[in-house]
Write a structure and sequence with these properties.
The structure is a single chain. The chain is an alpha/beta fold and about 130 residues long. It is about 30% helix and about 30% strand. It has four helices and six strands, in the order βαβααβαβββ. Strands 3-2-1-4-6-5 form a six-stranded mixed β-sheet, with helices on both faces. It is globular, with a radius of gyration of 14 Å. The N and C termini lie far apart (about 35 Å).
Length: about 130
C-alpha cells in the first residue's frame, strides 16, 4: 500500500535526490514550497513576486515526483507553519522537509523549527541538500 507524503522543500532542483529518497510507493503527494527566498524587507512587505516563484517551484517539483499530486503550492515562510497549514487539508502519513545545509541556508531557513522525528504526531524526515 502506498503512502500519503507531504513534501516541504526550500531547495529548487532537488527533485532527483528527493525522488530517490521517496521511493516508488507514494500514492498521494502534496508539495509546499515555503517563501524563503526574500529579504527581510520583502518579507515585511509580503512580496508577491517571491510567492509566485515559490508556486512555480512547487508545481515543477510535484511534476517530477512519484505519486498523484493532490496539491502544489507556495507556503508560509516559516517551514513549521507551512507544515501545520498543509496538514490541515492533507492527512499525510509522513512529512519530508528539504532544506539547504546551515552554511547555505537563507535567513528564513536557518531556524526552520523542524527536525527528524515527528510533527503533530506525523513522522517527519529532514533532508539537507545543497542547491545546484
Amino acid at each position: 500500500m502506498g503512502r500519503k507524503v507531504l513534501v516541504v522543500t526550500t531547495v529548487e532542483e532537488a527533485e532527483e535526490k528527493l525522488r530517490a529518497w521517496l521511493g516508488d510507493d507514494v500514492d498521494e503527494l502534496k508539495v509546499v514550497v515555503p517563501v524563503v527566498k526574500q529579504s527581510i524587507f520583502d518579507w515585511l512587505a509580503n512580496d508577491e513576486r517571491a510567492r509566485a516563484q515559490a508556486e512555480v517551484a512547487a508545481e515543477r517539483t510535484a511534476e517530477a515526483l512519484p505519486g498523484r499530486t493532490v496539491d502544489a503550492l507556495a507556503g508560509e515562510a516559516d517551514p513549521a507553519l507551512a507544515i501545520q497549514d498543509a496538514l490541515a487539508t492533507f492527512p499525510a502519513d509522513e512529512i519530508v522537509v528539504v532544506t539547504r545545509p546551515e552554511d547555505e541556508a537563507t535567513w528564513l531557513e536557518q531556524d526552520a523549527g523542524v527536525e527528524s522525528g515527528s510533527f503533530l504526531g506525523v513522522p517527519l524526515r529532514r533532508l539537507r541538500i545543497s542547491a545546484p
